[in-house]
Structure formats: C-alpha cells, structure tokens
C-alpha cells in the first residue's frame, strides 16, 4: 500500500480520491448524513485489516468510521477513510461482462451462469492443450486465513494445478527469510499490538510511514516512551 502525498495537502477537496469520474465534490459529501446503524467490518485495502464501522442509512453505505480494534485503536489511514466510496461508485463492476466476439468487441453484460460456464470451459480447454499446470491461482494479503486455505484447496484439488501463490512470495519473501534466520519462523513472531511494548525497533530499507501508516502510529507510541527508541 502507498499513500498519495496530496492526501495531506492543504485546501484539498474532500474525498478527492474518487472524484476522477466527473462527479462534483458536493455529491460525495454524504459522510455528514446521520447513520441509522453501524456495521462492524474490516478494511480490505491491505493486510493490516483495521477495524471499522460502515455507516448505513436507508440501505446504503454513506460513510465509514474507525472502531477501537487492537490493530488500529480507533484510527484509519487515508485509504481506509475513503473505502466506503467504492460501494456506490459509478465505475464499480457489479455484474459479469464479456467480450463475446473477441478482444476488439465491446463488453456486454452476461449472467453469472454464462460467465462461470465460460471461465470453466476455457480453463478446461487450456489445461487440455497445455497441461493442468497451465492455470494458476493467486490470492492476497487482504484475504482471511480461511479464504487463503480455500484458495489453496481450490487450486490443488479443484483445478489440479500446482501453481498457487500468495502475497507472501511477492511481498514478504525477503522478510520471511529474515524471520526464519533470526527467529526460526517464517512469519512475524509477535502480533502488531505488541509493537508499542518493545524497547527498541530497528527499521532498515523500509518506509513504514509510507507503506503502513497505522503501523507507524503504533511505532510512534513506542517512540514516545522514556526508555524506547525507533
């Protein structure tokens, strides 16, 4: 994750991030509406999984606010703050679309049955021609452990391919190796809420504030301690 620098700019238009489709800024000022209920959930923009509430009124998501969760402690980064805008955004894809007459043809709306049948048929054709490993599955850090487990089973058992990869190889391979050599385990040996409890944190080759603002906030609480250093 990377935060746009203009997010913190002075005189910045409210909710600038999703105003590129021609909507006037005033049309996005729905966060001022009073919510009828709050729905607890998690931000899905990165692996931190900050706790948040969706503000709902008349069956529509009108805003978001942080909740007191061990990871973010009532804070959200700029991406999490505007996360709710995707729900009703005019460019959001809400149904399957397919180019029925080749890549140069326009996208046409199709049913879920037609879309899934087409994908399954093409996968079978590709595997029949090039082998079962010609199809790969890729998941990400925004998925829960249970969903990642299902993705692995779907790839190996359902599709029959050995090519299943996760965010860990793309993003965390170096960190995983460092963890293994230093602590004998290929993942973080402590949970995020333990970060402020450390006496010293050494960050090398990483801009924590840029990549994980919420983690940086926890490190900031560490740095304010009398006997702590960052």
Which features characterize this protein?
230 residues, alpha+beta, N-terminal domain of TfIIb, 4 domains, two-stranded antiparallel ribbon, 7 helices, 12% strand
Tally of distinct domains: 4
Query: Counting H and I runs of at least 4 residues, what is the number of helices?
Result: 7
Poorly predicted runs are 1-10, 14-22
Count all strands and give the number.
7
Describe the structure.
- Strand 1 and strand 2 (51-57) form a beta hairpin.
- This protein is an alpha+beta fold.
- It starts with 36 loop residues before the first strand and ends in a 7-residue tail after the last helix.
- It is 30% helix and 12% strand.
- Residues 1-10 and 14-22 have low confidence and may be disordered.
- It folds into four domains: 5-86, N-terminal domain of TfIIb (Single Sheet), CATH 2.20.25; 94-130, no CATH class; 133-189, no CATH class; 191-230, no CATH class.
- The protein has helices at 78-81, 112-130, 145-159, 167-171, 173-183, 208-211, 213-223, and strands at residues 37-42, 51-57, 60-66, 97-98, 108-109, 137-138, 164-165.
- It is built from seven helices and seven strands; from the N terminus they run E-E-E-H-E-E-H-E-H-E-H-H-H-H.
- The protein has a three-stranded antiparallel β-sheet with strand order 1-2-3, with no helix packed on it. Strands 4-5 form a two-stranded antiparallel ribbon.
Summarize the structure.
The chain has helices spanning 78-81, 112-130, 145-159, 167-171, 173-183, 208-211, 213-223; strands at residues 37-42, 51-57, 60-66, 97-98, 108-109, 137-138, 164-165. It is of the alpha+beta class and 230 residues long.
